[in-house]
Design goal:
The chain is of the alpha+beta class. Helices cover about 35% and strands about 30% of the residues. The chain has a seven-stranded antiparallel β-sheet with strand order 6-5-9-2-3-8-7. A four-stranded antiparallel β-sheet has the order 10-11-16-15. Strand 2 and strand 3 form a beta hairpin. The longest helix has about 50 residues. The chain starts with 11 loop residues before the first strand and ends with a helix. The structure holds zinc ion.
């Protein structure tokens, strides 16, 4: 510490090891005020940022959101202070800061506990992205240009003009086969020089700008990536991948997909919606499209018939008007005569 609340050394990142536990012991090495957050009047609660000597919390980066969880700090009076980790960020110097609602003094021992469900969800979507991008490249020669992992949707953007449904299904099947094969995922560090040689041999698609050793994450027999994110230990844990949508964007084609429980939940809610719509029309999900097409045809036919009837009514009205005018003129003529 240099008195500014900022520790001199950055935290050891336990999450780089794919087998690392989500619970870990650490010591607080830095504390700084994070301003106030929340509240409609701008006078929200004070937020604090904690640095630790080691952490299993993943900070936001590479299109992937941060881990959440708990820190249990041991106070000087031996009591335990429980603080929730709201957010985790990395600063320009590479320090990891844990945003919490209570300050914890520098030097305090803490027990960290990463939220396992959120971590698994992110690791599944992120590892699934590696695999999906690899299969788009292998099967269709389409490179991925960006990745986004949100709470609602996960997308990659591909450098592509268009993707036909048959090709999309082929890629989706290829991805799920690698998931069943339960390939191991490995992580190791290499010197920049070696990483550049891997890039030159086509074993890596790109390298980060920064100097120093590079972390390589390998999906055995599939691909290698220079990546700092969190991953599953073998592809089986991705649990399955479902493509949800493809749409045109400025830089190519955006593919929305989901993995693991997200895929199960998405399929479940789609089916519930189909059943609900089917119940309104008294058909099962399989007959729904045919029934809707029939109804649309019916509606078109009725619109045609209605137009015809309206024209006939108008003609009748015109004729009635004309004959009553004629009759009036005839009456006027006989009065004069
Ligand atoms: Zn990765």
């Amino acid at each position: 510490m240099d008195g500014s609340g900022v520790p001199r050394t950055v935290a050891e990142r336990l999450y780089y090891d794919l087998d690392a536990a989500l619970e870990f012991q650490a010591v607080v090495t830095g504390l700084r005020s994070g301003g106030r957050e929340g509240g409609s009047d701008g006078q929200g609660k004070p937020l604090w940022h904690l640095a630790l000597d080691r952490t299993a919390f993943y900070p936001a980066g590479g299109g992937q959101p941060w881990d959440q969880g708990l820190l249990l700090a041991t106070l000087p009076n031996a009591e335990t202070l429980r603080v929730e980790v709201e957010r985790v960020e990395e600063d320009a110097a590479g320090q990891v800061w844990h945003a919490v609602w209570e300050p914890v003094a520098v030097g305090a021992p803490v027990l960290g506990r990463v939220d396992a469900e959120r971590r698994m969800d992110h690791a599944q979507q992120h590892s699934g992205q590696h695999l999906l991008s690899a299969m788009f490249l292998r099967e269709l020669g389409l490179p991925t240009v960006s990745f986004h992992l949100g709470a609602q949707s996960v997308t990659i953007d591909l450098k592509a003009e268009m993707i036909c449904p048959e090709d999309l299904a082929r890629v989706e099947d290829a991805v799920n086969r690698v998931i069943f094969e339960d390939r191991r995922m490995l992580s190791r560090w290499v010197e920049r020089e070696e990483a550049e040689q891997m890039l030159a041999r086509g074993e890596l698609r790109k390298l980060p700008e920064r100097a120093g050793p590079i972390r390589i994450v390998q999906m055995e027999g599939v691909e290698s990536n220079a990546c700092g994110g969190t991953h599953v230990r073998s592809t089986g844990a991705i649990g399955g991948l479902l493509v949800r949508r493809v749409e045109k964007v400025r830089q190519g084609q955006r593919v929305e997909f989901c993995c693991g429980l997200r895929a199960v939940r998405a399929a479940r809610s789609d089916l519930a919606r189909l059943r609900e719509s089917g119940a309104l029309l008294s058909v099962g999900p399989a007959e729904l499209a045919g029934r809707v097409a029939g109804l649309m045809e019916d509606r078109k036919q009725r619109a045609k018939e209605r137009k015809l009837l309206e024209r006939q009514i108008k003609e009748l009205e015109d004729r009635l008007r004309a004959s009553s005018q004629q009759r009036r003129r005839g009456d006027e003529g006989s009065e004069q005569g």
